[in-house]
Amino acid sequence: MAASGKNPFAYLELAGSGTSFTAEIGNMLERADMFRDMTRHEVDVFARYVQAYNAPVGAEVLIEGDRENYMFIVAEGKLDILKQSGNYKETKRIATVRAGKTIGEMSLLDGLPHSATVKVVADPAVLLLMTKNHFEQFIEEQPEVALKVIRKMATLMSLRLRQTSGVLIDYLKD
User: Fold this and answer.
1) 132 in the Ramachandran plot: left (φ > 0), alpha (ψ -120 to 50) or beta?
2) Which of 5, 60, 63, 74 has the most CB atoms in a 10 Å sphere around its CB?
3) Measuring CA to CA, which residue among 77, 57, 75 is closest to residue 125?
4) Domain of 83?
5) Domain CATH for 80
6) What Cα–Cα distance (Å) separates residue 32 from each residue in 35, 78, 113?
7) Do residues 132 and 138 lie in contact, with contact meaning Cβ atoms separated by under 8 Å?
8) Dihedral over alpha carbons 101, 103, 107, 27 (to 10 degrees)
């Protein structure tokens, strides 16, 4: 069970499964930043390892401090990234994530707890889930496509770190 005592999957509803739904997942993945430079075949290969879920407004799909290792690709919706203050008395929104973005990939790669809470806002969301077990299976069974995905994940995380560093330096100037 999660360190927070909350079960983020309690709010999620499976949107579809099976080989007939894999093509639909592929269509959703094609619109995501992580898959822009990949062929449709590579996207379809990845699609076999993820599941699509509907998440209602208010659902916390990642919880800061939890050790579950999974990531979501946001197919539809808008989610706020929330971070607890140093004294844990306050939570602040640090970013908003929209369709096409990924969340939770750091924990998927490094096995460390989630660094923030992510909550569905405004409209229900459609999220594509990649669990740690499926990720490891994907790497083992599809190493060439997995290498492309991991490189893209690293590039996107690097871009986010650069943006965050830019914001931090502006904050420190004041």
Assistant:
1) alpha
2) 74
3) 77
4) 8-131
5) 2.60.120.10
6) 6, 14, 24
7) no
8) -60
